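Journal club prep, notes for RB
We'll compare a predicted complex against what the paper describes. Inputs for the zinc ion case:
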Amino acid sequence: MQFCDDCGSMMRTAGDEMACTSCGYTEPKDEQLAERFVSTAEQTTDDVIESTEDANFEGKPTADDVTCEACGHGEAWYTIKQTGSADEPPTRFFKCTECGNRWREYN
Ligand SMILES: [Zn+2]
Ligand SMILES: [Zn+2]
């Protein structure tokens, strides 16, 4: 028998997790599963902007037709890179001139 860390109600098995019957709080069934969950999360590489790691945006042209998702600023430095094959449109990489947030845009 396991009890919710959050509200103290009874937990029940729900797939790979234990779920609270009262507040909906969930946690991994045991430590082995917890470790696997963590390592899976660490391997998530979605949205990693690999090719801009060393990019120096300062001094690059700025675009004012953009909006920074992080701070709402309307100006960002940008560089254009051919990331796919030659017949695909190039990708624009942005760096917010206000907060430094980076993102990319597919045309
Ligand atoms: Zn609960
Ligand atoms: Zn910003």
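Talking point for the session: Strands lie at 11-14, 17-20, 26-28, 62-63, 76-81, 91-96, 102-106.
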